[in-house]
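quick q for whoever's on today - can somebody do inverse folding on this one?? i tried earlier but teh output was garbage lol. tokens:
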């Protein structure tokens, strides 16, 4: 009985001590090849300049302290209004 208890204690302690040792990996995981595609699409998005109306709407949303859904809704409506105002001003200037 004494010998089996000793083996059981050794097994349990080795399992408990092996967890932290195995969790600390010295090698970095290999880079995935499909991670390059999102990086390319992000650079395409980042390279597109923001319009003056978008920047102004963003400043207005910051001033109002909007976040989340409210900010998204405000930005959508603000840009829509700015585009309508620009189209109206452009049409009025073309008729003169």
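ok took a stab at it. sequence:
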């Amino acid at each position: 009985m004494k010998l089996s208890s000793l083996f059981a204690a050794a097994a349990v302690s080795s399992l408990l001590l092996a967890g932290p040792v195995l969790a600390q990996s010295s090698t970095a995981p290999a880079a995935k090849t499909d991670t390059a595609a999102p990086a390319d699409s992000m650079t395409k998005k980042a390279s597109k300049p923001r319009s003056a109306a978008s920047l102004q709407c963003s400043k207005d949303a910051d001033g109002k302290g909007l976040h989340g859904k409210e900010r998204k809704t405000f930005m959508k409506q603000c840009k829509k209004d700015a585009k309508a105002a620009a189209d109206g001003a452009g049409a009025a200037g073309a008729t003169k």
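fwiw The mean pLDDT is 77. also Helices lie at 2-23, 36-47, 52-64, 68-95. so keep that in mind when u check it
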